[in-house]
Amino acid sequence: MRVLILLFGLLILTQPGLTQGTQQDTRPHVVFVEDARLLQVASVTDNGPDGVSRLGEMFIAQGARTSWIRLTDALPEDTRVIVMVRPRQSLPADYLARIWLQMARGAHLLLAIDPPGQLGARPDPQNNGLDRLLTLDYGVSLLNGLLIEPWFTLGTIREVETSYLFADGDPVPNPIFEPITRYDLPVRLWGARPIRVEPFGIDSEAAALLLASPLYAETTAETLRLSEPTPLELNIETDPQGLMNVAAVGQNTRTGSRIAIIGDGEFLQNGFGLSIIGGSTIPRYAGNTILAQRIVSWLLELDEFPDLPEGLTWLALDGDPTEWESFAPSLTDDAADSSLDLLNLVQVKSFRNDSFVYIELETAAPPSAETQVDIEIDRNRDQRADVIISMQPGRVFAQVGTAEAALVYDAEMAVGQVIELRLPRRLMDGDILSVCLSSARDLAFPQPPDCSESSFAPITVAEIDPVNVRTPREVMLTVTGSNAVNMRVRPGLSANVVNTFTFGAEFAVLGRNDTSDWIYAQDARWTGWFSTAVVRINGDLAALPVIP
User: Fold this and answer.
1) How confident is the model at residue 170, as a pLDDT?
2) Residue 5 burial (10 A CB sphere; 0-12, 13-18, 19+)
3) pLDDT, tens digit, 9 for 90 and up, residues 399-410
């Protein structure tokens, strides 16, 4: 009997969320719902790709304590935030009642939930108990449907790894996603469902966080089933179309309870939205990580959001020189060599990270929005231009060697107090021979371009760019080989290697060879060919253009 009493005492002292001794733990209590058998939710105790241990670490890093519970029992009365990620089955009525009882006391909810039918899952659908309570009390509704991009196929939507698409921050300002907009960060989703937001209700306020623009949302159950599927096909009468919310927050003004709803279960999982670059703490998807951190802060009712992740380049292209104050000039130019101050180049600052070259151009007076920038690059270091780039806001062309000038989709120019440029390293590795400023329109009194008087090389910083692929986000390629994977200059295992990449590296797909066993792809730094045996794409391989 004495042994049983001792064991019972040890059990109480070691329960998650409880502290030993008499001192009460005043940290906010965050409870993760776990039920591997019934709900099949992602586990906070799982450090693998399907777990959400990194989400738990985010809560702890921001001052909370975490525990987990099966909803067969009531939630602890001190529960401040309830977390449920990727439930694959609907909540039973008694489970939902236990959650709602705690939320009526002021607790908050974080829910990441997949579309009904995706990969055979049956999470809560539209118009069931959970959806009705979310709608009535918080102004956020769950809708049915799997978001479909034009390049998706039945094959790609049947695998989590190839069902991904991208979303952007809502244009209405919101401090939760402010860095997403400021730094133009895409947010990645793996098989998302749409969400409806009613900004103002009787006792509720709600706001959208993320917007996606898919072709439509597939609601046909037979299409989403793993067995005997029907083709992907838009049904105008039932399938949602147009711009869609895929994440939202809401608050009940009567109880003070908050919710954050994400229409994708993988968004918060270790191996998907919160994955890191191998062997580091740097997030692979910076937009996902930042948004998750700030949702955590909002649910914990903190006054400040956490700092942006370290090891990444944080520089917004907005024409503001403030972020350049710590950089020394790469060169200075004679301020007396031009009579038109707004085109008179006086100083250049520049640096390059792993993917892009960033350049700031200062003029004698604030530059014109119609300024044109021409840059000559010597990649062979023979004092002759190998690449000529011509830039205007929203329009960048590059001529490589003797080839015709072509649009550069992942270069950008911003004009404000200064001119800021972002250029892909695949064009910029080498010395910059000259930078010239001129007017993009005809002037009443034409002025010759003002050009830098000497060549320079951007300094190298040991940072990773938050986005290595800034081309239009359509068909994308992900390296999946378990070992190092080679990009080659031509299709074929005998071709020279451009560079070697590890699991998770991403590229924009440009085309394929005529036998469809090699894919041509690029990111900001590299362009080359991958064998289809070691990569996956989120679109139809046969529909890609054939590259000679």
Assistant:
1) 84
2) exposed
3) 999 899 999 999
C-alpha distances out from residue 540 to 40, 129, 480, 507, 509, Å: 31, 38, 17, 16, 11
Please indicate, yes or no, whether residues 487 and 454 belong to a single structural domain of this protein: no
In this structure, what token pair is assigned to residue 210?
Answer: 């993320």
Look up the pTM and report it: 0.92
Same domain for 118 and 54?
yes
Q: For the chain, what percentages of helix, strand and coil (3-state, to nearest 5) are there?
A: 20, 30, 50
Contact indicator for 387, 399 with CB cutoff of 8 Å: yes
Please classify residue 105 by burial: count the beta carbons closer than 10 Å to its beta carbon, then call 0-12 exposed, 13-18 middle and 19+ buried: middle
**Domain that residue 490 falls in:** 476-543
Do 124 and 260 lie in one domain? The reply is yes
| 58 and 164 inside one domain | yes
Q: Which of 408, 427, 460 is the last residue of a domain?
A: 460
Asked if 105 and 78 count as a contact pair (C-beta separation under 8 A), the reply is no
Q: Contact at 8 Å (CB) between 464 and 312?
A: yes
Q: How many domains does the chain have?
A: 3
pLDDT of residue 230: 76
- The reply to whether 433 and 376 lie within a common domain is yes
End-to-end CA, the chain: 82
In-domain check, residue 244? yes
Considering the domain architecture, whether residues 342 and 266 belong to the same structural domain is answered as no
Q: State whether 228 and 101 are in the same domain.
A: yes
> For residue 306, what are its two tokens?
């956490």
Query: Residue 224 CA to chain centroid, in angstroms?
Result: 25
Residues in a beta bridge with 205? 200, 251
Per residue in 406-462, pLDDT tens?
999 999 999 999 999 999 999 999 999 999 999 887 665 667 889 998 999 999 999
245: pLDDT strictly greater than 70: yes
Within its chain, how far is the Cα of 449 from the centroid?
39
**Residue type for 155, please?**
G
User: Which CATH number is 139's domain given?
Assistant: 3.40.50
276 DSSP assignment: B
CATH of the domain at 490: 2.30.30.40
Domain boundary among 400, 428, 460: 460
SS3 of residue 140 by DSSP: strand
With cut-offs at 50, 70 and 90, classify the pLDDT of residue 334.
confident
Question: Would residue 289 count as lying in a domain?
Answer: yes
Residue 138 and residue 260 share a domain: yes
Q: Which uninterrupted H or E stretch holds 2? A: helix 2-13
> What one-character-per-residue DSSP string does 59-107 give?
HHHTT-EEEEE-TTSPPPTTEEEEEEE--SBPPPHHHHHHHHHHHHTT-
Q: In sequence order, which residues have a C-beta less than 8 Å from that of residue 145 and are 6 or more positions away?
A: 115, 193, 194, 216, 217, 218, 219, 239, 240
Q: Tell me which residue has tokens 């072709």.
A: 215
SS3 133: helix
Cβ neighbors of 51 (< 8 A, separation 6 or more) are 42, 43, 44, 45, 269, 270
Q: Kindly state the greatest CA–CA separation across the chain.
A: 101
Measured CA to CA in angstroms, residue 421 lies from 34, 123, 125, 245, 361 at distances of 48, 45, 46, 31, 8
